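Dear colleague,

Thank you for sharing your sequence with our group. We've completed the structure prediction you requested, and as agreed, I am returning the results in plain text so they can be pasted directly into your records. Please verify that the sequence below matches your submission; if there's any discrepancy, let me know and we will rerun it promptly.
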Amino acid sequence: MKILAVAMALVLVASACGGGSDSAELEALQVQATTVPPTSTTSTAVAIDDWQIEAAREPCESLQAVHNGMMMGVQFGELMGSGSVTASEIIEFLDLLAETMSANYLQAVAEILVLDTEFIRPRAEELEAFNDRIIDTTEIIFVLAEVAWLDGVTAELADWCGSRNYHIVRSCTDGVVQESRADVLVEEKSC
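Please find the predicted C-alpha coordinates below.
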Protein backbone atom coordinates (compact mmCIF):
# COMPACT_ATOMS: atom_id res chain seq x y z
CA MET A 1 0.00 0.00 0.00
CA LYS A 2 2.83 2.41 0.80
CA ILE A 3 4.38 1.78 -2.61
CA LEU A 4 1.04 2.55 -4.25
CA ALA A 5 0.76 5.78 -2.27
CA VAL A 6 4.29 6.82 -3.24
CA ALA A 7 3.66 6.01 -6.90
CA MET A 8 0.47 8.03 -6.86
CA ALA A 9 2.26 10.92 -5.18
CA LEU A 10 4.89 10.86 -7.92
CA VAL A 11 2.20 10.93 -10.59
CA LEU A 12 0.57 13.87 -8.85
CA VAL A 13 3.85 15.77 -8.62
CA ALA A 14 4.62 15.09 -12.27
CA SER A 15 1.19 16.29 -13.36
CA ALA A 16 1.47 19.41 -11.20
CA CYS A 17 4.74 20.25 -12.92
CA GLY A 18 3.11 19.88 -16.34
CA GLY A 19 1.02 22.99 -15.83
CA GLY A 20 -2.18 21.35 -17.17
CA SER A 21 -5.45 21.29 -15.32
CA ASP A 22 -6.35 18.27 -13.20
CA SER A 23 -8.68 15.78 -14.77
CA ALA A 24 -11.39 14.02 -12.82
CA GLU A 25 -9.29 10.87 -12.86
CA LEU A 26 -6.31 12.66 -11.37
CA GLU A 27 -8.47 14.25 -8.69
CA ALA A 28 -9.76 10.79 -7.76
CA LEU A 29 -6.16 9.55 -7.42
CA GLN A 30 -5.37 12.51 -5.18
CA VAL A 31 -8.26 11.64 -2.89
CA GLN A 32 -7.23 7.95 -2.84
CA ALA A 33 -3.61 8.85 -2.04
CA THR A 34 -4.62 10.94 0.94
CA THR A 35 -6.96 8.27 2.33
CA VAL A 36 -4.59 5.26 2.20
CA PRO A 37 -5.06 3.45 5.53
CA PRO A 38 -1.99 3.13 7.78
CA THR A 39 -0.28 -0.25 7.92
CA SER A 40 0.92 -2.13 10.97
CA THR A 41 4.49 -2.72 9.72
CA THR A 42 5.80 -0.08 12.10
CA SER A 43 4.83 -2.07 15.19
CA THR A 44 6.47 -5.21 13.78
CA ALA A 45 9.72 -3.35 13.10
CA VAL A 46 9.76 -1.96 16.64
CA ALA A 47 9.33 -5.43 18.12
CA ILE A 48 12.24 -6.73 16.04
CA ASP A 49 14.40 -3.79 17.09
CA ASP A 50 13.52 -4.41 20.74
CA TRP A 51 14.44 -8.07 20.32
CA GLN A 52 17.73 -7.16 18.66
CA ILE A 53 18.54 -4.72 21.45
CA GLU A 54 17.82 -7.33 24.11
CA ALA A 55 19.76 -9.98 22.16
CA ALA A 56 22.79 -7.66 22.05
CA ARG A 57 23.25 -7.89 25.82
CA GLU A 58 25.22 -11.16 25.77
CA PRO A 59 27.81 -10.24 23.14
CA CYS A 60 28.24 -6.83 24.75
CA GLU A 61 28.80 -8.46 28.13
CA SER A 62 31.41 -10.72 26.48
CA LEU A 63 33.07 -7.63 25.05
CA GLN A 64 33.01 -6.04 28.52
CA ALA A 65 34.73 -9.18 29.84
CA VAL A 66 37.44 -8.72 27.19
CA HIS A 67 37.96 -5.17 28.36
CA ASN A 68 38.02 -6.21 32.02
CA GLY A 69 40.67 -8.82 31.24
CA MET A 70 42.74 -6.31 29.34
CA MET A 71 42.58 -3.88 32.26
CA MET A 72 43.66 -6.70 34.56
CA GLY A 73 46.57 -7.34 32.19
CA VAL A 74 47.61 -3.69 32.37
CA GLN A 75 47.51 -3.82 36.16
CA PHE A 76 49.49 -7.06 36.14
CA GLY A 77 52.04 -5.33 33.89
CA GLU A 78 52.49 -2.69 36.56
CA LEU A 79 53.03 -5.47 39.10
CA MET A 80 55.60 -7.09 36.79
CA GLY A 81 57.47 -3.80 36.69
CA SER A 82 57.81 -3.88 40.46
CA GLY A 83 59.71 -7.19 40.25
CA SER A 84 57.40 -8.98 42.69
CA VAL A 85 56.40 -11.79 40.30
CA THR A 86 58.50 -14.57 38.82
CA ALA A 87 59.00 -15.25 35.13
CA SER A 88 56.94 -18.45 35.35
CA GLU A 89 54.07 -16.53 36.99
CA ILE A 90 54.21 -13.97 34.20
CA ILE A 91 54.07 -16.65 31.50
CA GLU A 92 51.27 -18.49 33.29
CA PHE A 93 49.26 -15.28 33.65
CA LEU A 94 49.78 -14.25 30.01
CA ASP A 95 48.77 -17.72 28.77
CA LEU A 96 45.60 -17.63 30.85
CA LEU A 97 44.85 -14.03 29.86
CA ALA A 98 45.36 -14.76 26.15
CA GLU A 99 43.13 -17.84 26.28
CA THR A 100 40.37 -16.12 28.25
CA MET A 101 40.41 -12.92 26.21
CA SER A 102 40.36 -14.81 22.93
CA ALA A 103 37.43 -16.96 24.07
CA ASN A 104 35.41 -13.92 25.17
CA TYR A 105 36.33 -11.99 22.03
CA LEU A 106 35.37 -14.84 19.70
CA GLN A 107 32.10 -15.33 21.60
CA ALA A 108 31.24 -11.63 21.24
CA VAL A 109 32.10 -11.63 17.53
CA ALA A 110 30.16 -14.86 16.85
CA GLU A 111 27.07 -13.56 18.65
CA ILE A 112 27.21 -10.21 16.87
CA LEU A 113 27.65 -12.06 13.57
CA VAL A 114 24.34 -13.84 14.18
CA LEU A 115 22.61 -10.57 15.07
CA ASP A 116 24.21 -8.27 12.50
CA THR A 117 26.03 -10.12 9.72
CA GLU A 118 26.37 -6.96 7.64
CA PHE A 119 28.29 -5.28 10.46
CA ILE A 120 30.74 -8.17 10.99
CA ARG A 121 31.32 -9.36 7.42
CA PRO A 122 33.36 -6.34 6.16
CA ARG A 123 35.43 -6.39 9.37
CA ALA A 124 36.10 -10.14 9.44
CA GLU A 125 39.79 -9.93 8.55
CA GLU A 126 40.47 -7.20 11.11
CA LEU A 127 38.56 -9.11 13.78
CA GLU A 128 40.51 -12.25 13.04
CA ALA A 129 43.83 -10.36 13.03
CA PHE A 130 43.04 -8.82 16.41
CA ASN A 131 42.14 -12.23 17.84
CA ASP A 132 45.42 -13.60 16.47
CA ARG A 133 47.21 -10.85 18.41
CA ILE A 134 45.48 -11.53 21.72
CA ILE A 135 45.79 -15.33 21.54
CA ASP A 136 49.55 -15.06 20.97
CA THR A 137 51.24 -14.82 24.39
CA THR A 138 54.04 -12.59 23.15
CA GLU A 139 51.78 -10.40 21.04
CA ILE A 140 49.27 -9.78 23.83
CA ILE A 141 52.03 -7.90 25.68
CA PHE A 142 52.12 -5.36 22.84
CA VAL A 143 48.32 -5.14 22.76
CA LEU A 144 48.37 -4.33 26.47
CA ALA A 145 51.24 -1.86 26.16
CA GLU A 146 49.60 -0.02 23.25
CA VAL A 147 46.14 -0.14 24.85
CA ALA A 148 45.33 -1.42 21.35
CA TRP A 149 41.98 -2.93 22.22
CA LEU A 150 40.47 0.53 22.68
CA ASP A 151 41.08 1.46 19.04
CA GLY A 152 40.23 0.15 15.60
CA VAL A 153 37.86 -2.72 15.08
CA THR A 154 37.40 -3.43 18.79
CA ALA A 155 36.31 0.17 19.34
CA GLU A 156 33.81 -0.37 16.51
CA LEU A 157 32.43 -3.39 18.41
CA ALA A 158 32.09 -1.20 21.51
CA ASP A 159 30.30 1.43 19.41
CA TRP A 160 27.99 -1.29 18.04
CA CYS A 161 27.09 -2.17 21.62
CA GLY A 162 26.64 1.50 22.46
CA SER A 163 24.19 1.90 19.59
CA ARG A 164 22.09 -0.77 21.29
CA ASN A 165 22.25 0.92 24.71
CA TYR A 166 24.99 -1.32 26.11
CA HIS A 167 28.00 0.82 26.92
CA ILE A 168 31.39 -0.64 27.73
CA VAL A 169 32.99 0.64 30.94
CA ARG A 170 36.58 1.33 29.94
CA SER A 171 38.47 2.28 33.06
CA CYS A 172 37.58 -0.42 35.60
CA THR A 173 39.10 -3.83 36.03
CA ASP A 174 35.67 -5.24 36.74
CA GLY A 175 33.33 -2.93 34.85
CA VAL A 176 29.83 -4.07 33.98
CA VAL A 177 28.19 -3.12 30.68
CA GLN A 178 25.85 -0.17 31.30
CA GLU A 179 22.59 0.79 29.63
CA SER A 180 23.34 4.50 29.46
CA ARG A 181 26.41 6.57 28.74
CA ALA A 182 25.76 8.60 31.90
CA ASP A 183 25.87 5.40 34.00
CA VAL A 184 29.20 4.52 32.40
CA LEU A 185 30.65 7.86 33.46
CA VAL A 186 29.37 7.39 37.02
CA GLU A 187 30.85 3.89 37.22
CA GLU A 188 34.16 4.98 35.70
CA LYS A 189 34.45 7.80 38.26
CA SER A 190 33.96 5.30 41.07
CA CYS A 191 36.82 3.08 39.84
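Summary note from our side: The CA atoms of residues 162 and 168 lie 7 Å apart.

Kind regards,
the structure core
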